Amino acid sequence: MDYDDYTTEEFAADESFQAYSLGTDATAREFWLKWQQQHPAKTAELNEASELVRLVAGQRRRVVPMAVQQQELAKLLHAINQPPAPRPWRLRLRHIRVMAATLCLVLLAGVGSWLLQGPTKPSQLARYTTPFGQQRRITLPDGSVVVLNGNSTLETAARWPQAGRREVWLTGEAYFEVNHLAPKSVRNVASAASRLQFQVHAGDVDVTVLGTKFNVNSRGEHTQVVLNSGKVQLDRHAAFHTEHVLLKPGELAEYSAPARSLATKTVNASAYSSWTHGYLTFDHTPLADIIPLIQQTYGLNLTVTDKNMLRQQVTGSVPNDNAEVLLSALSKALNVKVSRTGNQVQLLPL
User: Fold this and answer.
1) What is the pLDDT of residues 18-27, one digit of tens each?
2) Distance of alpha carbon 48 from alpha carbon 51, whole angstroms
3) What sign for the dihedral angle of Cα 69, 72, 75, 77?
4) pTM to 2 decimals?
5) What burial letters (b/e) apply to 171-184, b meaning 16+ CB within 10 Å?
6) Residue 214 and residue 227 in contact, taking contact as beta carbons nearer than 8 Å
7) How far apart are CA 179 and CA 174, in angstroms?
């Protein structure tokens, strides 16, 4: 393949270059690193193309309206069908490649203002929030129940459509008990009518169910879903593909935005929702993992004087009624001293 005359847009539309930019193909990475060394003059264009690929791939797909797609396609076809001025065949082929690359990027980017921003929220929203360290129980219009953990927000349509999908948007942590509207004969989540589906939009992941119990924790660059019963379908939308995962009871799925990875494993599902019953359950959990949980849920800034403490593990249950009780229980479990001034908490070895 002769890439010497490629533009930024052509590099970004090349499948091999996309794999290199996204780090999904070792062979492609080796090729493009070597090619860049041999063509230093193209470094700026390669960097711009990589940034474009990662920008598109790192955000969630918003569906472009069919009318807009048809309008842009008509423009492209009209441009292609125009009688070209006499030019060498190599330049004509390159012109076609550029037009095709442009269409690809236009549709991926959502045609200007239709950038990849995720599913559209209704214009009128019902918004539920919780302050640090508090929980809230919410009954939705369909009878589904949501328990919202501290420092979390749940949004949904102020008036739910009769025939449309039941949708909510979550930032933070929540436990869902979704009311099952589908008849017993309907078991497949993906093929069920949209009016029977319940969908949670959390970070870069969409969680779709018919009726089940599950916990979702979506803070920062990580989204974690744990299934207690029933079935859950996870969809992660990237620029060039959609990744699907079907969870079984007792499984955990975690998406990492920095790594762009979605991994699953078997866990004790009840432990991840134990916070709804007044306690936190840990199983050989290092303090390094417990600290961000406390910071995000209770708004406390925890620090340690000895970094070796971060490797100390906690097994068992501790009450989470309030921050003071939780810190006291952790101090006993870890055999450390807690020093607190306002929201600043320091853990000291005894």
Assistant:
1) 888 887 777 8
2) 5
3) negative
4) 0.69
5) bbbbbbbbebbbee
6) yes
7) 16
